[in-house]
Amino acid sequence: MSLKLEGIMVKNVVTVKANVTVKRAVEVMNKHEIGCLVVVNSEKPVGIVTERDMLERIIHELREPEKTRVIDIMSKPLIAAAPKMSAGEAAKLMFERKIKKLPVVEDGRLVGLVTLTDLVRSEEVLGFLNGFSANDAPKRMKKVVDLYFDRAKRFRRRCPLIMKSGFSMGCQEKKCMWWLGDECAITKLSRQMSNITSVVET
């Protein structure tokens, strides 16, 4: 049985109203430590605003976040999926439309959100990636795939984030977002926690 989005998606999606300022939207994103907000108008999802939207349409264009409204910079029309869509179909849609976030909508109502990272981690998407050429995909999408999928060997990488200790075959080292300075932040944190535990036990 194919994996459906309803089994992967985050159900408690943080939203923002279309008429609020970009400054307020940034405050909400920082509070929840997230990279996007689904934009709603009268509870209906009408768009999405991401960190990239803010970089390109606020910072790059030198617009004032205190005066600019979310509706003026959000990506629209909203590209969405249905809860019953399979993970493989969703991955295909995201690569075709060059997006990394996919809201899930049912009967006009927002019910969830999946990211490209969520999908690449699922077993079903491996089949899609095996026959897919990422040549035309944006660099930011390739980076996500490269982090979790070894295209040459056709297998999912085992990230240190899901290991109990140390590195594993397929570690991306300096290419990984968790690589800080000269080592993996997760490995460093694990070692520090082990040292603390040893001192406490002693």
Write a structural description.
The chain has eight helices and nine strands. The protein has helices spanning 22-32, 51-59, 70-73, 87-97, 116-120, 124-130, 139-148, 185-201; strands spanning 15-17, 36-41, 44-50, 101-106, 109-115, 149-150, 155-156, 179-180, 183-184. A three-stranded mixed beta sheet has the order 1-2-3. A two-stranded antiparallel ribbon has the order 4-5. Helix 4 crosses helix 6. The N and C termini lie far apart (51 Å). With 202 residues, it is of the alpha+beta class. The protein has a domain at 5-129: CBS-domain (Roll), CATH 3.10.580.10. Mean pLDDT is 78; it is low at 162-169 and 196-202.
Roughly what fraction of the amino acids lie in strands?
15-25%
Q: How many DSSP E strands?
A: 9
Helix content class: 25-40%
Rg over CA atoms: 19 Å
* Number of continuous helical runs: 8
Strand sequence of the main sheet, in spatial order? 1-2-3
CATH class identity of the domain at 5-129: Alpha Beta
Throw out a few tags for this protein.
CBS-domain; 3-stranded mixed beta sheet; alpha+beta; 202 residues; 37% helix; disordered C terminus; single chain; 18% strand
Q: In terms of topology, how is this protein built?
A:
Elements (H helix, E strand, L loop, with lengths): L14 E3 L4 H11 L3 E6 L2 E7 H9 L10 H4 L13 H11 L3 E6 L2 E7 H5 L3 H7 L8 H10 E2 L4 E2 L22 E2 L2 E2 H17 L1
Parallel strand pairs: 1-2
Antiparallel strand pairs: 2-3, 4-5, 6-7, 8-9
